[in-house]
Write a structure and sequence with these properties.
Elements: E1 2-6, H1 9-25, E2 31-34, H2 41-52, E3 62-65, E4 67-69, H3 80-87, E5 99-100, H4 109-122, E6 128-131, E7 153-156, H5 159-165, E8 178-181, H6 184-188, E9 193-197, H7 203-211, E10 229-234
Parallel strand pairs: 1-10, 2-3, 2-6, 3-5, 6-9, 9-10
Antiparallel strand pairs: 4-8, 7-8
Bound molecules: fructose -6-phosphate (F6R).
Amino acid sequence: MKVIVCQNYQHLSDYAKDKVIEVINSKEKPVLGLATGSTPEGMYQALIEAYKDNKVSFKNVTTFNLDEYIGLKKEDPNSYQHFMDEHFFNHVDIDQSETYLPPGNTSDHQQACLDYEKNMHQHDDIDLQVLGVGINGHIGFNEPGTDFDTRTHVIELDASTREANARFFDSLDEVPTHAITMGIATIMESKQIILMASGDSKKEAVKRLMEGDITPDFPASVLHRHPHVTVVLDREAASLLT
Ligand code: F6R
């Protein structure tokens, strides 16, 4: 696991942006795995700027997002589809029919999970998976206790995850209780992974990630078993590392 400590959030975002562009430019039909949340917002902004400066095109890129809340319509301002449209897809030349998120608003979520996996297998493996990390160590929405061999599945969100994400909703009660997430085995099949963590609130999780045991109690720890992972931190997130 390679660890990069950046001066600040802007540098972290630029590092991730450069990595995404490097992967896109190395392949004819690149496949990216994408995350939502506060952490990658700066990276998406930097990618949009690079696109506007003609430094990258997303024309041939396919994307698969990690997760989606169950029960929110696509156009709901808190859906991850809406997040991706607003923060990225609507601002670049990506073919939107090649951007995929797990559907959070279908009648059969189990079937939706199988279909999502099938769709991924019909494409090449993910060339670069972008990850954030939860304060409880979740990756995607794989909460503590999730088996390492899981594939795309429905998960009940931890109380701590719902509380952390309540900042985007009018009240905690409105935060969905369940989500569809790529599984840990799905994530581990990516050829390369970049995990970003920023800010003081992530410092304990980062310490446990870097210095703790590999255990389903802290899902991000599985990344030590992947051959090509870069952990990109800002100084605050790295502040407890010895
Ligand atoms: C989002 C996702 C989550 C977030 C994590 C950190 O698609 O999969 O694992 O990466 O909850 O969220 P932020 O970046 O908001 O701190």
